[in-house]
Amino acid sequence: MAKTRVITPEELEQQEPFKEQLRRFYEQRQPGVAPLAYIRTYGCQQNVADSERMKGQLAQIGFGFTDKPEEADFILFNTCAVREHAEDRVFGNVGALKALKRRRPEILIALCGCMVQQEHIAKKLYQSYPFVGLVFGTHVQHRLPELMVRTLVERRRVVEIPECDGVITEGIPAERDGTFKAFLPIMYGCNNFCTYCIVPYVRGRERSRDPEFIIAEAKELVRQGYREITLLGQNVNSYGKGEAHGVDFPELLKRLNAIPGDFLIRFMTSHPKDATPRLFDTIAACEKVSRHFHLPFQSGSSRVLREMNRGYTREQYLELIRYARKAVPGIAFTSDVIVGFPGEQREDFEETLSLIREVGFVSLFTFIYSPREGTPAAKMPDPITAEEKTAWFQELTALQESLSAERLQKLVGTEQRALLETDAGDYLEARLAENSVVRVQGDPARIGEYVTVRITSARSYIVTGDIVD
Ligand code: SAH
Ligand code: SF4
Ligand code: F3S
User: Fold this and answer.
1) Cystine design at 137: which of 161, 202, 230, 420 (Cβ 3.0–4.6 Å)?
2) Domain at 5-166: CATH architecture
3) CA 198 / ligand 2 centre spacing (Å)
4) Residues 130-160: pLDDT tens digits?
């Protein structure tokens, strides 16, 4: 296992002179006017959390933030590589900035994150997108000020994607997007090498933050009034493995649960091969831990699961679900599933459908397999046509829709605790602990509060209810 290297506050101090240089640079350019940054984040919550920390660094320099790229002095795309579609969107949206750069040559356009951590992508960007000034990978985000200085002050195009693995940065304040829901990374990287997945290559080896830092951050979030804290990692169930502190995921949950206050602890993602009966027993004993569990199964066929290198069989997955339902009454599951993995046959796909029927998920994130350069699955024979895969995908989505509708119908007449999340204009959206959204009438000033909702109707995905207190 790679040795974890914690970037300490002392090491972060080395960025201070660069921040000062940037302050002077922008002050000279436009005296008395704060520069503006536009940050666009693709991909998963991990990327959202990274962007919040990069925003923290920019705020320290004196940046303000805008959601209009044409107003910005600094444009940063934090990219995702998980499927081809994600990468295509980035290329398209970066291409669209060319005209802006021509009009305002002084702006700095930068790309970072998982997609650019791949060398062939970084090369393509450097060659084909000359208006992109700075490209940096997933292991050097704490050096953002230094990289900006090298690009802006020293007037060079910079590509920085070192393989320097095992980095954990502590001490960068997050500039959070939400005011009552917060992401809290507990670990980084992945060691599982599912054969279809690019994440281990672009995020490096698995490493866990020290529990002291996590608990301190959680306490601070609760103090600030956050109502939901989502713990993040590619496989939270292996939290702490290989680290000297000896705290594993169930133990971490217990310690977080012990923080006083009215808040909910969520987490994602859990890997079935590392979800243990002890984890479910812990959840049962921790009243602040959400009864919603995101547990990706990827395929219902043990043969395909083996080809995916997932480390469990269909039977083991179902056994885990049975145990969880016994240990934690009312637990609700969501999941991820891939359709059209190389070599998947109609029989395999039908096993996926039958698993979905058997478990009864609240909702599913469904993906058509997308080959990723450098992963073992990309080299496997894949005789099923794209049309066939699309047809299977639609069949699966239709099945889940009808199951979800049936499930939601059963909620009608019940009372549920929910967090008022969004003002949709005609109604407010409240999220149930199990992750479904309910439309209610209420005062937008109450957003961020917990309420009790009586569910009055459920038509396909649209659930409505009344606030009863
Ligand atoms: N670490 C998490 C998921 C990370 S990626 C886990 O193991 O569950 C999120 C989801 O994207 C995965 O669960 C998977 O369903 C999907 N995914 C990953 N690589 C993919 C690929 N090459 N093609 C299609 N879907 C993919
Ligand atoms: Fe990818 Fe598998 Fe790691 Fe999840 S566990 S990030 S799917 S390699
Ligand atoms: Fe995408 Fe990277 Fe997350 S590849 S899904 S942003 S870890």
Assistant:
1) 161
2) 3-Layer(aba) Sandwich (3.40)
3) 8
4) 999 999 999 999 999 999 999 998 899 999 9
Tell how far the Cα of 299 is from the centroid of ligand 1, in angstroms.
11
CATH of 291-407, one of 3.30.750.200, 3.40.50.11890, 3.40.50.620, 1.10.3720.10: 3.30.750.200
Q: Whose CA is nearest to atom 24 of ligand 1?
A: 369
- Distance CA(372)–CA(375), nearest Å, equals 6
Ligand at shortest distance from the CA of 342? 1
Burial of 87 (0-12, 13-18, 19+ CB in 10 A): buried
How do residues 328-371 score in pLDDT, each as one tens digit? 999 999 999 999 999 999 999 999 999 999 999 999 999 999 99
pTM reported for the whole predicted model: 0.95
State the distance from the centre of ligand 2 to the C-alpha of 279, rounded, in angstroms: 20
Give nearest CA residue, ligand 2 atom 1: 197
Question: Could you tell me which CATH number the domain at 178-289 has?
Answer: 3.30.750.210
Q: Is there an atom of ligand 3 within 6 Å of 49 CB?
A: no
Q: Does ligand 2 lie within 6 Å of residue 365's CB atom?
A: no
114 close to ligand 3 (CB < 6 Angstrom)? yes
Q: What is the pLDDT of residue 1?
A: 45
CATH code 3.90.226.10 for 415-467 = no
